[in-house]
Amino acid sequence: MMKCFLYMRVSTVQQKLDRQEQTLLNYAKENNLTVSDRYYYEKESGSKLERPQLMALLEFANKRDAILVEQVDRLSRLNDDDWTTLKAIIKKKELIILSPELPAITKMIDKDNKILSMIGEFLSELVLELLVTTARKDLEDRKRRCNEGRKIAIQNGVKMGRPVDTKLHENIASLLNDGVSWTRIQQLLNCSRSTIQKVSKTMKEEG
């Protein structure tokens, strides 16, 4: 019997995975899918091929099992070459990609959890290819828009990067004027040496 392996991914450590898990469990229950007790959680970029949890899932899953993802871009925002590599692994093990984004594919699975026909497999691969391409293009478009926005902001005199902690810089300057060592300033203000260096450089430039 085919098992579904839940694969959940976010790009940053600050993001939570709980919502994805509940969405997938609900979807599996609604569609009578058999879910493996092995869940795979990842906090990695979807544009990166070598993701430990994804590789572990692909290694452990049996032929004709399924990978259940909330959205296809959780699985891949890869470039053409890396997507070709990942797709080859998926096809070699005859794995099926299921998602709430692909309800028609899920409907093609019968009560024995098997694909109904070769047409179903072909459609699954065709739709997956389209969604992965769309996800990759979306990522590229967002990066392009971000870079364009950054360039315009710089041209308009907007300073990029983290805002300066004025109070911290004033405290560092005061301690430097009093002859306190950099190491002691780090201990007192819990700041980095690079910050102290910036303040010291500014003080020298300003005389």
Nearest-integer average pLDDT: 80
- Choose one word for the global shape: elongated
> Which strands sit side by side, in order, in the main sheet?
2-1-3-4
User: Beta-strand percentage?
Assistant: 5-15%
Architecture of the largest domain in CATH?
Answer: 3-Layer(aba) Sandwich
**Helix-and-strand structural type:** alpha/beta
SSE layout and pairing:
Elements: E1 4-10, H1 18-30, E2 40-43, H2 52-60, E3 66-68, H3 72-75, H4 80-92, E4 96-98, H5 103-107, H6 118-155, H7 166-177, H8 182-189, H9 193-205
Parallel strand pairs: 1-2, 1-3, 3-4
Helix pairs in contact: 7-9
Can you put this structure into words, describing what you see?
The chain has helices at residues 18-30, 52-60, 72-75, 80-92, 103-107, 118-155, 166-177, 182-189, 193-205; strands at 4-10, 40-43, 66-68, 96-98. The chain is α/β, with parallel strands linked by helices. The chain folds into 2 domains: 4-141, Rossmann fold (3-Layer(aba) Sandwich), CATH 3.40.50; 166-205. Helix 1 (18-30) links the parallel strand 1 (4-10) and strand 2 (40-43). Helix 7 (166-177) packs across helix 9. The termini are far apart. Mean pLDDT is 80; it is low at 116-120.
Label this structure with key terms.
207 residues, alpha/beta, Rossmann fold, 2 domains, 9 helices, 56% helix, 8% strand, elongated
In short, what is this structure?
This protein has helices at about 20-30, 50-60, 70-75, 80-90, 105, 120-155, 165-175, 180-190, 195-205, and strands at about 5-10, 40-45, 65-70, 95-100.
